[in-house]
């Protein structure tokens, strides 16, 4: 009996103390949401010993996302003394007021742990001031296409009015063109320019193919040689530096290329990759994500692929066309992904790849889930956090859907579960009244204004 007790105690102690131990899952107070389950073995990321959950842990990962989303309810808004009465009802300065992990009964289908009635606490007067809302349930505010607490940019009233009369399908696609990471006048390299060590450059068919692959990429076209990814300068002491001022720096070569090497040129892509499901484990020093660990259906033969840059941008080709569709479908086997190749979106992609239509006119998986964004300096880059516009999916409206579709059509499509499962193969069969209500409210205000003018 004593031996059993010692074994149990040892198991519990190891589970509690080992940062990445698989056995820690036995101590979880409840199921982790699908937004965080990958990192559930690193309790210390969100919890501090003896003080429970850290409020700033949320911002460690999500502060930049909230800033880019132009959050409509920032904590700073509630620092204003005029909103003190609201804080007494709902502490909107604290993420944990609404978001708590391991609370399965409050975890919504989209993965957020959140009460459904949070809007009602501060906006009860809406039921009195807006007759159109009188029959709405108190917990229906966050229904798809209505209101979001954080990213509400495509759903606020003025925006709805501005885009109220748009056609379902816009006449032209308004996509962004990526900004090159190097100057366009850089000397293009070819296979004979490769600067890899001689013992790497044997004449085997495999090595020749590797050089041919590299020489055909935008890396070679931009002057990025083998050393750009495979080598780093050896750190020297001050006396060594003094002796080598007129010589080339000593390089340390490695065959494996990590994310840091990619990040030297693709900093934003690397940073956002760490924020998404594909890279969040690597961001906190856990082994890379594999499809076997996913909660979505995945192809069995892809179960043990490690998800890093090379998982999608494979080998020395770094083929962005492959990464845009094929790399996704190699792993993903859910209904939405399987349906993609039966849609008009896929047809447009096939035509673009075949050169029948202009570059950027096709709709790939990456077009919607890894969209091109413009930063504060006007540079266009690819968002590599593939979940950034899915929680909630209305975040796709401005960055993705409205490049091709009208606002009302976009809202309806994202609220139609069947359309989502079919990968939008057909027009939505669901209608959300957001635009209609905004127009009706505007027209009512106009009528009242005209009546007041007549009375004068």
UniProtKB/TrEMBL annotation:
* Reactions listed under catalytic activity: 6 Fe(III)-[cytochrome c] + NH4(+) + 2 H2O = 6 Fe(II)-[cytochrome c] + nitrite + 8 H(+)
Keyword Metal-binding assigned to the entry: answer is yes
Q: Does the keyword Electron transport apply?
A: yes
Tell me the domain of life: Bacteria
Look up and give the organism this protein is from: Neorhodopirellula lusitana
Which family would the database say this protein is a member of?
Belongs to the cytochrome c-552 family.
Q: What is the name attached to this protein's record? A: nitrite reductase (cytochrome; ammonia-forming)
Q: What is its EC number?
A: 1.7.2.2
Question: Which Pfam families is this protein grouped with?
Answer: Cytochrom_c3_2
Name the cofactor(s) required for activity, per the record. Answer: heme c
Q: Which Gene3D superfamilies match?
A: Cytochrome C3 (3.90.10.10), Flavocytochrome C3, Chain A (1.10.1130.10)
Q: Which InterPro entries match?
A: Cyt_c552, Multihaem_cyt_sf, Tetrahaem_cytochrome
Q: Which UniProt keywords apply?
A: Calcium, Electron transport, Heme, Iron, Metal-binding, Oxidoreductase, Signal, Transport
